[in-house]
Design brief:
The protein is of the alpha+beta class and 252 residues long. It has helices at residues 34-48, 79-85, 90-105, 115-124, 132-144, 182-194, 198-212, 216-221, 223-231, 239-245, and strands spanning 8-12, 15-20, 23-28, 57-63, 66-72, 77-78, 150-152, 161-163, 169-171, 178-180.
């Protein structure tokens, strides 16, 4: 493998991503354990089985005592970069983005982790960030939500969409995939937009609710839950914003 500095695509706190010929190679830090890497590969493979057109997972390997995951390279720009370059076309890009999300939700991947189980674990891990009463209220609300079986990405944002020269869109980075409720994922996507641009977030939610024939109020009931899930990522600059959304009393 040619994992030189010139082939580096991005560096994250727990991984460095390289382009090596026809593949992307994610090299994880040692603290990102073996089980996490194999779980990501397994999630990706199970999404492939759904028939959704995504990059093929190729192999798990070890490079300089670090675990690595190789995935087929997809040529193109991220939707996020295109939205920055062409702000006049935000409406059109978001239309395509929502259409892609709904086509994903129509797929079945029954062997993935259940969304509710994952959310419950994450909420209960927030012992230092939110008190026991709030964690209980969030879990009670979560348990009362309909348990659907839609294929959900877990981090569905323009950053994780590759657009090729023909305008075709491909979803990448399936580490957090689950089966669950599409409106929970829409609420999560809305929050991630809102962290950067409230106007685009509102436009996205309007489009999602219109195209999916979903009441906006229903998506909003998920916001405290998905805000807590996002809080587990420990991004300090997001904390104040997310804690405001975790006030479940506002959504009773």
């Amino acid at each position: 493998m040619n994992l030189s500095e010139e082939n580096k695509i991005v560096t994250r706190p727990y991984k460095t991503v390289y382009k090596d010929g026809d593949r992307i190679v994610k090299v994880f830090q040692k603290e990102h354990g073996k089980a996490n890497v194999f779980n990501e590969a397994l999630c990706h493979a199970r999404v492939e089985e759904s028939g959704l057109a995504i990059p093929e997972v190729l192999e798990v390997s070890k490079i300089d005592e670090k675990w690595a995951l190789s995935i087929r390279y997809v040529e193109g720009d991220t939707l996020e970069s295109l939205m920055v370059k062409h702000p006049d076309n935000i409406q059109g890009y978001l239309e395509q983005f929502v259409d892609l999300q709904l086509s994903m939700h129509a797929r079945k991947a029954p062997r993935l982790t259940l969304q509710k189980d994952k959310f419950t674990r994450k909420i209960n891990s927030l012992k230092e960030e939110i008190d026991a009463t709030t964690r209980y209220e969030l879990c009670t609300r979560l348990n009362a939500m309909p348990a659907h079986t839609k294929l959900c990405h877990g981090d569905f944002t323009p950053e994780n969409i590759i657009v090729n020269n023909n305008g075709d869109m491909t979803i990448i980075d399936w580490a957090h995939a689950t089966i669950g409720n599409a409106s929970a994922e829409a609420a999560s996507t809305y929050l991630k937009f809102a962290l950067k641009n409230q106007k685009i977030a509102d436009l996205y939610l309007d489009l999602f609710c219109k195209k999916s024939d979903t009441a906006k109020q229903y998506v909003q009931t998920w916001l405290p839950i998905v805000a807590a899930v996002q809080l587990t990522k420990g991004i300090e600059e997001e904390k104040e914003f997310l804690l405001k959304w975790i006030d479940v009393i506002d959504f009773q």
